[in-house]
Amino acid sequence: MTALAISMTHRQDRVIVALGGDLDIASGLYLDDAVRAALCVGCRHLVVDAADLAFCDSHGVEALLRARDALAEVHGTVALVNVHGLLRRVLDITGAVASFTAVTDAPVSCDGRPLWKVP
């Protein structure tokens, strides 16, 4: 078990949340806290970067869906980028992949532009 690491980068009305380690029943609430913090600074578009995520179970997917619901309340979006491994598999199996603005193994923003070019 690897502790969840969360780093946040603000870009205008977007927040990029980079996850590392394990997103599971023990750590999903930390993602909830990060989403609340993003909303407090005016975030309307959340980009979750899963490049360094080592593990994600159904509880982790629930945390991602809660993030989607929180952003939907402010007419915002959630995109998942650098999705790979077990997270990709769980999203595909559960059908949750359709719940997000974008789910990709490439680094892109909520509106489809390359993540590194988002203002």
UniProtKB/TrEMBL annotation:
One of its GO terms (molecular function) is anti-sigma factor antagonist activity. CDD domains: STAS_anti-anti-sigma_factors (cd07043). InterPro entries: Anti-sigma_ant, STAS_dom, STAS_dom_sf. Pfam families: STAS. Transmembrane segments: none annotated. Residues 4-95 form the STAS domain. Belongs to the anti-sigma-factor antagonist family. This is Anti-sigma factor antagonist. It comes from Sphaerisporangium siamense.
